[in-house]
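STRUCTURE:
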């Protein structure tokens, strides 16, 4: 993989450099609630601008349906990027149209423009190769060089991630280079004990990684919405908890395989339950009940791990040499269900292990719950991307930078 350092050595003065970033940040109306992903691309954008490039930054945000949708504009992310860079950033209200062309044409050396959301164009995510290729060709007309730095999107075979880097000289930015370096440490020869903590809500997306981790990890701790499909597989009542019924057989197989391989597979022993999902807007007190994990009432749902589980998981993390954590332990957005996630974050902070946090919500949780990012070995900007890397899959956006 050629990196941006090589590009900088060749010189970029006056060149139009297309930076495929991941500015897909959580927003509440016009306010960005966590700007971690914007900060993550700063080293690349800064280095290019300081070297005199004309920097064209592009990204997706959310899942608009292939047409402009003001709910998913990148305008606010663009102005945050400008604040963080400490220099004005031009914003084009389209991606391949007249605004994009005039914004790019108007750039002086060292200036930065941000294009509107790539997914406002159906070509970005199209499954039709020709449609994607056409969009990629139009993007290519805006630049001389491509720098891939949107790690959170490298598992997508999208036009700006997969097709465009084949049309221009392509390099990996600092973020992608760092992320890949860290994930290599988790796959090549990992220091043991290697403990993996999995949680969150996207259960079916994440079960695949367990299949692979059973060959790699020494211990797997399960929390969050994930846990209930496993508890169900063990024959427990899970009430109205998040459940992926069709995955119960897979969970049973994983439990059996873990036992055979001597991988310690740990499930919650107690959980906080309630008959209703908490109000994340008002944060009104939720008054949860604490129950053993094999005694969830049929009309209630599990929303966080309980205090015994927190202690248990902290002890299972204490002697780790390497930790990978993906997915919050509970609905951490509400203070009554944040303690489980806090306890795992604290255990990682206290641990001398090499700790990696992956996942958009997990990374946001670490920051919004007030932890110091520096206390972790690495906080990945890509949830799906880091999981697919650990699963051993070929990531289209990385493969495109290898060629
Ligand atoms: P990440 O983005 O870190 O990969 P996910 O997107 O899979 O994580 O899941 C994050 C979401 O999971 C959070 O919004 C959190 O509220 C939710 N969550 C955690 N535990 C539960 C639970 N027990 N029931 C429902 N949702 C949960
Ligand atoms: Mg998420």
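SEQUENCE:
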């Amino acid at each position: 993989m050629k990196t941006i350092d090589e590009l900088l050595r060749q010189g970029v003065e006056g060149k139009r450099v297309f930076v495929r970033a991941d500015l897909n940040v959580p927003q509440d109306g016009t306010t960005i609630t966590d700007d971690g992903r914007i900060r993550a691309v700063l080293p690349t954008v800064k280095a290019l601008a300081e070297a005199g490039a004309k920097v064209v930054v592009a990204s997706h945000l959310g899942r608009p349906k292939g047409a402009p949708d003001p709910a998913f504009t990148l305008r606010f992310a663009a102005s945050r990027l400008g604040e963080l860079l400490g220099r004005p950033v031009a914003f084009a209200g389209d991606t391949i149209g007249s605004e994009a062309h005039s914004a790019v044409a108007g750039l002086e050396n060292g200036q930065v423009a941000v294009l509107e959301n790539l997914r406002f164009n159906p070509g970005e995510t199209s499954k039709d190769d020709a449609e994607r290729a056409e969009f990629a060709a139009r993007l290519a007309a805006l630049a001389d060089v491509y720098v891939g730095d949107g790690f959170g999107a490298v598992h997508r075979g999208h036009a700006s991630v997969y097709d465009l880097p084949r049309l221009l000289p392509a390099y990996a930015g600092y973020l992608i280079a760092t992320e890949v370096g860290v994930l290599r440490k988790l796959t090549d020869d990992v220091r043991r004990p290697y403990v993996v903590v999995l949680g969150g809500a996207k259960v079916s997306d994440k079960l695949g990684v367990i299949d692979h981790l059973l060959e790699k990890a020494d211990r797997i701790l399960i929390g969050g919405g994930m846990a209930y499909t496993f508890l169900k597989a063990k024959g427990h009542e899970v009430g109205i908890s998040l459940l992926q019924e069709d995955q119960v057989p897979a969970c049973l197989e994983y439990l059996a395989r873990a036992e055979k391989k001597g991988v310690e597979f740990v499930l919650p022993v107690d959980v906080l339950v309630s008959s209703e999902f908490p109000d994340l807007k008002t944060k009104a007190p939720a008054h949860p009940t604490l129950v053993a994990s094999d005694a969830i009432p049929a009309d209630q749902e599990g929303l966080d791990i309980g205090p015994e589980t927190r202690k248990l998981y902290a002890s299972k993390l204490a002697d780790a040499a390497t930790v990978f954590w993906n997915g919050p332990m509970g609905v951490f957005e509400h203070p009554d269900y944040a303690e489980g996630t806090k306890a795992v974050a604290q255990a990682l902070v206290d641990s001398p292990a090499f700790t990696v946090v992956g996942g958009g919500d997990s990374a946001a949780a670490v920051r919004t719950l007030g932890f110091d990012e520096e206390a972790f070995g690495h906080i990945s900007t890509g949830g799906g991307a880091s999981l697919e890397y650990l699963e051993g899959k070929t990531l289209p956006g990385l493969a495109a930078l290898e060629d």
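REMARK: Residues 359-361, 383 surround magnesium ion (ligand 2) (CB under 6 Å).
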